[in-house]
Amino acid sequence: MVPELSRAQAAFIQGPVSISLAARDDARRTTIARGLACRVSEARDQIAILVCASRAAPLVAELRAEGWVAASYSLPATHETLQVKGRDARVEPALPGDEARAAAHRAAFATQIAVAGFTAEFTEALLHHEPGQLCWVRFTPAAVYMQTPGPRAGERLRPGA
Amino acid sequence: MLSVDHIRDCLEGGVPSLIATCDAEGMPNLTYVSQVHYVDPEHVALSFQFFNKTRENILRDPRATVRVANAETAVEYRLDVEYLRTEPEGPLFERMKAKLAGVASHTGMAGVFKLLGADVYRVRNIEQLPGPVLALERPHPPLLPPLRRMGERIAACGGLDELLDRTLAGLEELFGIRHSMLLMLDEGGRRLYTVASRGYGASGVGSEIALGHGVIGVSAEQRTPIRLSYASMDYIYGAAASGTAAEIPWPGLREPQSQLAVPIASGGRLQGVLYVESLEEMAFCYEHEDALAALAVTLGFAMQALAQDGDAEPDGPAAAADAAPADKAALQVRYYPEDDSVFLGEDYLIKGVAGAIFWKLLRDYQRDGRTEFSNRELRLDPSIPLPDIADNLEARLLLLHRRLQERSSLLGLEKTGRGRFRLCVRQPLKLVEVAGA
């Protein structure tokens, strides 16, 4: 089976992008949280996003109840944006080395937005996580959408495309 | 509870905002929003640029969540909102369109970002999200103290001339705004003309802007403040391209990075526009818009009061004229009735109502040797096309006075009392009326 994510897309979402996630509760009220790093499995059939459980408490609670998730990835320099959706998100504990992984992503993203005048302290604050609060949101990518501003925004990208 | 007033700094752009919605199936959707715009304490408007999943979702279920962030302190807020309506035109639409044009050119998206509508949302709740908040590196200077001092200065003004100059001087001295101008609405209501400016090489007094053209024209047409925080080709006034002789070059900055125009109205009627600009990006924030809008209200009433005051003194007897020195060659003054334009020698001076006034003064001078005039007689003169109410006569006389000051050492106007002035002629005149072509 062709994975939903292409190699280029997988590389993109693991790059120095801005990551956000959305979930919803029983009443279909939505919530948004920041992702602190992203990993894609070798077979590109699993996405895992690092979040801070305390800062993203409502999202984590909603995903524990039901795993419908939308994740958005955007590269500030080019506005290139992808959205990936999944129906089987689950919350998993962090592993040793994840603090370093979050720090590496933070540093890479800080470099990205420094050109727009944002300081490293700003990025530190935006992507800050409380000690011991890191956890993973893992899901199978079910659909990928183009969201770069323009006439193709919102278009579903076919697997392997 | 937090209102939208508390989080306006997050709506200046900087950090992109996101909106989350939910589809019929229950799948969440996340989309970046180019602009979350302040409407009032309970409402925001989101830029609608593309038909997308968000649109499909809110038309079905109006509930959504918006996340905004402050680009200086990194504090983030979650807004629970409910979609109400889309405005495809009007003041709110124009405010957002201008702002979006600035953002688009700043981010290299000019031509991609096109506003289709202003999506108005009711804000149900605002919640600060947990996370570190940075201290402001340079706290914004408070704008109420300078606004108060400006009000005191305005209250002390005794004439329109003084009022306009002190207002623009105050903008520089009290607010640090170096480039500013005041434009008045033309009697026909289709154009604005500059009556005062500050911070430019040439004053540009008498230069005109059509209603709907650029930041100033749109502000007047829609009667709403228009503010751009970044340069946009769509809103920059051309490099003083002067097509005909009867045009006074626009004095404004060639490449302003920030622009703000605020309409001046009183008694429900548009009087003009207060315009400021800067070579710096993001020079004016929501607070500046507030301060200048409040100032414009004061200014509108002050202008109205001073204009009424202008007629207060009864007409005195016409004084004898000092004859112009007869030993000099006559200055030819040409008048074109079709647009009331007046030329001194070969140089364009003025047109419109101010031109008609000037021609009447010159004819009276030539015929009777009169030099003393009153506002009241001008108002009653059938040869001057003033509307019955709100004639802006004071502003017209001020415009004429300033144009003469700038363009001629031989002719001038001098205030001699309330609602009275003198025509000063320092050279013999030859008046020529040029019939329509």
Question: What do you see in this structure?
Answer:
The complex is a heterodimer of chains A (161) and B (437). Chain A contains 4 helices and 10 strands. The radius of gyration of chain A is 15 Å and the shape is globular. A 6-stranded antiparallel beta sheet of chain A has the order 2-1-5-6-9-10. Chain A has a 4-stranded antiparallel beta sheet with strand order 3-4-8-7. The mean pLDDT of chain A is 95. Chain A is of the alpha+beta class and 161 residues long. The longest helix of chain A has 17 residues. Chain A has a single domain, classed as Roll (Pnp Oxidase, Chain A), CATH 2.30.110.10. In chain A, α3 crosses α4. Chain B has 9 helices and 20 strands. In chain B, the strands form 4 sheets. A 7-stranded antiparallel beta sheet of chain B has the order 2-1-5-6-7-4-3. Chain B has a 6-stranded antiparallel beta sheet with strand order 10-9-8-13-12-11, sandwiched between helices. Chain B has a 4-stranded mixed beta sheet with strand order 16-15-14-20, covered by helices on one side. Helices cover 28% and strands 30% of the residues of chain B. Chain B has 437 residues and is of the alpha+beta class. Chain B has 3 domains: 125 residues, Electron Transport, Fmn-binding Protein, Chain A (Pnp Oxidase, Chain A); 166 residues, Beta-Lactamase, CATH 3.30.450.40; 103 residues, Winged helix-like DNA-binding domain superfamily/Winged helix DNA-binding domain (Arc Repressor Mutant, subunit A), CATH 1.10.10.10. The chains are: A alpha+beta (161), B alpha+beta (437). The interface between A and B is large, with 40 and 42 residues.
